[in-house]
Write a structure and sequence with these properties.
Layout: H1 2-20, E1 43-55, E2 60-74, E3 77-90, E4 96-108, E5 117-131, E6 137-149, E7 154-169, E8 172-189
Antiparallel strand pairs: 1-2, 1-8, 2-3, 3-4, 4-5, 5-6, 6-7, 7-8
Length: 193
């Protein structure tokens, strides 16, 4: 009889403990960060994982990868540099591989923002080379975008804007301009306090 009572108590105890451990969670899709990630002295590291564009003059399609790092010199104002790595296909011509570096300035607008997202503008001026090709070319960009904070230190971004480049490919000066769209992410790291 003692064994039956002890077994019943033990069975109810196990049943109660398994019911208490059921936890239901949902993935985090946004974080209320306010101004914390874009304060002066913080760092940002990340980039565009896919930049897709179409050139009007050359009738070409391009895709690139642009890792970047920046430092916030003031609240909402970051300066930094980004690498340029890309592929461009052209009508009836050999594919062109691009590479380069471009310093940038990014400003996060205070108006129109929410606790979990910020609009920003970014301008960059740099140099790039290509294979095939010789010499370096001028690269300019003016973009606007939106950063949506998934956590306190990670944001998903979308950018759209105008890009211009002037290159020498196979001895011919070639300037191109067009619109581009990029998707990416940034990791915001706190600076020393």
């Amino acid at each position: 009889m003692k064994k039956l009572i002890l077994s019943t108590i033990l069975a109810f105890g196990l049943l109660a403990s398994t019911q208490a451990q059921t936890v239901s969670t949902t993935p985090q899709s946004s974080a209320n960060v306010g101004m914390a990630p874009i304060k002066a002295g913080n760092w940002m590291v990340g980039g565009s994982v896919g930049n897709i564009g179409y050139s009007f003059e050359g009738k070409s399609f391009g895709i690139s990868l642009s890792p970047r790092a920046g430092y916030f010199v003031a609240d909402g104002l970051a300066v930094g540099a980004q690498a340029l790595l890309g592929l461009q296909t052209q009508d009836e011509q050999e594919n062109v591989w691009n590479y380069g570096i471009a310093p940038f300035v990014r400003y996060y607008f205070p108006g129109g923002s929410s606790a979990s997202g910020r609009f920003f503008g970014q301008g960059d001026v740099g140099i790039e080379g290509s294979n095939p090709g010789d010499g370096v070319s001028l690269k300019l960009g003016a973009n606007v975008g939106y950063a949506h904070f998934v956590t306190n230190s990670v944001a998903l971004e979308v950018m759209a804007g105008y890009n211009y480049s002037k290159a020498t490919v196979s001895g011919v000066d070639n300037s191109q301009n067009g619109l581009g769209v990029s998707l990416g992410f940034q990791i915001y790291l706190p600076g020393q306090k």
